[in-house]
Design goal:
Number of domains: 2
Number of strands: 10
Low-confidence stretches: none
Mean pLDDT: 96
Helix content: 25-40%
């Protein structure tokens, strides 16, 4: 049985302020928690309901993780979700260790103020799918430990390194030390299918409504876009969702450089 203080401590992690203070976050669902364990994420505690008890308890014990069975009503109190999946873990946040040398020879994703948690989570999942190790975010991009991001990433958060940095600083360091080509997804750019791509690249995706900030334009080496093939006669879409665009462009990069 959970004490009031324990419930209070866990539910505090529903809020960014306390996640930042405690350097922990909540992961929910059998698959997501299993992925965290498999990725050797530091887990301080796992909570589970009776119907999930036997298997998750065995896995937790085999990895030296404390676990506790809670009632359905207690799980509803501590869960971030409207329909709790019955398994909840308290995880340690990743410690930032971004170095430009780690980005050399690789394709990395750079996000300029992506605000929607669902978009960020999906982009992290896309990065994982295409074997991209780093997603680098501006300080105004959604927090990767937001419960909506954790759920949308579906375990990929534990395999992809998500870093936060002032993008002016990132690109300045790149120009001084790494010289990695910077590609920007922008309307009016060259078709990604015709553009000269590089296996080593920083792929920048802009804010959902405002696009890429004007202060970052000077760092762009090549502007690329996804051509529109709409055949509608009564109007057409003006753009693609940020995460959809990221997936299409990453697919073309990987098609060229497998």
């Amino acid at each position: 049985m959970l004490s009031r203080q324990e419930i209070k401590n866990i539910t505090a992690l529903h809020h960014k302020k306390f996640r930042q203070l405690e350097k922990t976050f909540i992961a929910e669902g059998d698959k997501i928690v299993r992925d965290a364990i498999q990725a050797s994420i530091k887990i301080t505690q796992i909570y589970f309901t009776a119907e999930n008890s036997e298997e998750i308890q065995t896995i937790a014990r085999s990895h030296g993780i404390d676990s506790l069975e809670v009632s359905e009503s207690e799980m509803k109190k501590i869960s971030c979700l409207s329909s709790p999946p019955g398994v909840l873990a308290i995880c340690r946040q990743h410690e930032s260790d971004l170095k430009m040398t780690a980005l050399k020879g690789k394709l990395s994703i750079v996000l300029d103020d992506i605000r929607d948690p669902g978009n960020l989570g999906t982009i992290i999942r896309i990065a994982d799918w295409f074997g991209i190790s780093y997603v680098i975010c501006s300080s105004q991009t959604a927090e990767c430990y937001n419960p909506k991001v954790v759920q949308a990433a579906m375990g990929s958060l534990f395999r992809v390194k998500v870093e936060y940095i002032d993008l002016d600083v990132l690109f300045s360091m790149n120009r001084e030390n790494a010289f990695i080509p910077v590609y920007a997804a922008m309307l009016g750019g060259e078709s990604v299918y015709d553009s000269e791509l590089n296996s080593e690249a920083l792929l920048m995706i802009g804010n959902e409504s405002a696009g890429i900030g004007t202060q970052l334009m000077k760092f762009i080496d090549r502007k690329i876009m996804i051509p529109e093939f709409s055949i509608a006669e009564n109007g057409k879409p003006d753009s693609l969702n940020a995460s959809v665009a990221t997936g299409i462009i990453c697919s073309e990069f990987r098609r060229r450089f497998r």
